[in-house]
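Hello Y.,

Per our agreement to keep a running log of every chain we model this quarter, I'm adding this entry. I've kept the format consistent with earlier entries: sequence first, then predicted structure.
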Amino acid sequence: MPAVVQLKDIHKTYDSGEVPVHAVRGVTLDIAGGEFVAVMGASGSGKSTLMNLLGCLDRPTKGRYLLGGTDVSGLDRNQLADLRNQKLGFVFQGFNLLSRTTARENVELPMLYGQRRFSSKEIRDRALHSLDIVGLSNRADHFPSQLSGGQQQRVAIARALINDPQILLADEPTGNLDSKTAVEIMGVFQKLNEQGITLVMVTHELDIAHYCKRNLIMRDGRLVSDTAVSDRLIATVEMQKILAAEAAAKLTA
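Predicted structure for the entry above:
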């Protein structure tokens, strides 16, 4: 499939006191539609800066970034905000749900801030559809405090999907979850990817990266490794193993 993301000799330098910080150094990268990519690296490797650049949350110091064929370097702040709203979906480690707002209302938020105007029925229907995709339509009227961590992350994923983005960006999406729930969330991501959604995920966990199809490794701001995952984990199989182990443990307890 054609490239959704094209980075051409991307650099990002921060002026921090007397010594400039070269966070990203000359990254050239293509990500095709339908890929599931993990970005890995130690703290300070540049992976988070790269994710911010991909999400149009920051601008490169040098180089070109084409998102869906659009060169984002020449866009102003309002145009970038609209691009993020329409073409990108974001999932973060901390869920970022409004505590006094139901799951459905949390999912609706991106539709309220775009340039397009929708009827209340359209917004509600699309939010319920997004929740149905992640298996939470029966929790639409629940508040975040009434949901488990895994369910809250599912709501965050549904919110990221509501505007049908070209690419879903996830920053340590399993970082606040236990291992069983993390596998559950990776199963959601794999299902979305099977439906054709392009995903890019930052993670420092090697086992989580093995659920993806392609692993990128950053070091000192440079892309030092770009490999396909040869021994890929499938979340449904791993969940079956976990449930079988739990059942066996209960029998022997």
